[in-house]
Amino acid sequence: MYPLSERVNEIRNLTEIDNYRKEHLLRRNMTKWLMLGSCMNTIEITEKGLESFLTEDTDSSGTGKNYLRISGALQILVTQQEAVKNLHNALDIKLPKDSSIKKVVENIQRIRVSATGHPTDIKIGKKEKAFGYINGRNFGPQGFELFTDYPEGDPRFKHAPEKDLRYQHEYVDIPHLIATQKDILIGVLDKVIETLREEEIAHRKKFTGEKLTKVLQITDPFFSYICEAATLPNSIHIQGVDSYVDGILESIEKFKREVKDREEPDHTFSWRYEYLENALQRVKDCFHKVNGTHFNKKNAYAFARFAQQEVKELKEIAKEIDERYAAAV
After folding, report:
1. DSSP letter string over 191-212?
2. What is the pLDDT of residue 93?
3. Claim to verify: residue 123 and residue 252 sit in the same structural domain
4. Residue 298 burial (CB < 10 Å; 0-12/13-18/19+)?
5. Domain residues for 171?
6. What does the alpha-carbon distance between residue 16 and residue 35 come to, in Å, rounded to a whole number?
7. How confident is the model at residue 34 (pLDDT cuts 50, 70, 90)?
8. Sign of CA dihedral 187, 190, 194, 195
9. Pairing status of strand 128-139 against strand 289-290
10. Same structural domain for residues 195 and 255?
11. Among candidates 150, 66, 60, 153, which has minimal Cα distance to 114?
């Protein structure tokens, strides 16, 4: 019943609900992010408004009421056009250059201006003007007769000498305009959805074969060596604790870079970095004299186990990201 709203829902899924990366990127420009939200809401609400026009008060005979219906429908059509246009701007997607689409859009805009928008002062080109009239005798709930006078001639028909350039008469069928615009916008929004999907697939393909989980796997033996050094007095790994800790820290830094390269948001887990680094530094301290004394090796073991658990949590996050990227290729 609401095909445009269905497509808006899909765009919403591709830009926020099912794609935190895209939402993260869009939120960097808050103006465009807010524009996107406004556009999606406007497309949905205008579609419902036009559906109400087609189904409610369709037998009205009151001129005033019908004028409100007609003027409202024409304004909603143009508002809907603007929302779709700005949706493209917000997503940095180019508008289609199809001349048939442009023709329909401009015709609806022309009718609105001539009939209810600015009928008393229609600007044509730089200097020319036109004036619109609605025939009150043939003015129904679904359409009307529109007369437009062009003192200097209608510029659209300057190459058609058989036409009277100073006068135009037409019947405006609002349900036909609504149906025509809906068909066009369905295709336009389908293209937006296709573009968003293609962009996401192209992004993820850049990291084919590169696993975030691999970056953190090399920390496993380092943690084992550190725990052994903390529990066995004569462990051969005691002298290597500093290098093991440095190896783990290097892996964490590489993980950070890889996440950033993928443009993945890390606000839900970046806080773990500080805790990790602090715990690993404490591990180092436990194996060095501070003020002439050694820290308790049990502390080193506890800090190492804590850091290992934090890395385990990062591995789960890495796994989720890897699976997402693999599924899209």
Report:
1. HHHHHHHHHHHHHHHTTTT--H
2. 96
3. no
4. exposed
5. 3-203
6. 14
7. very high
8. positive
9. unpaired
10. no
11. 150
CB 32 within 8 A of CB 89: yes
Token pair 């005033």 in the structure block, residue: 64
Taking the model in full, what pTM does it have? 0.83
Domain boundary among 203, 228, 248: 203
Q: Which amino acid does the sequence have at 104?
A: V
Distance from C-alpha of 55 to C-alpha of 53, rounded to nearest angstrom: 6
Spell out the residues 6+ positions from residue 238 whose beta carbon is closer than 8 angstroms to its own.
Answer: 229, 287
Residues 6 or more apart whose CB falls under 8 angstroms from that of 98 comprise none
Q: Structure tokens of 162?
A: 């058989």
The residue to which tokens 């209810």 are assigned = 116
**Number of residues that make up the chain:** 329
171 - beta bridge partners? 145
Confidence of residue 156 (pLDDT cuts 50, 70, 90): low
Does 192 share its domain with 215? no
Q: Provide the domain count of the chain.
A: 2
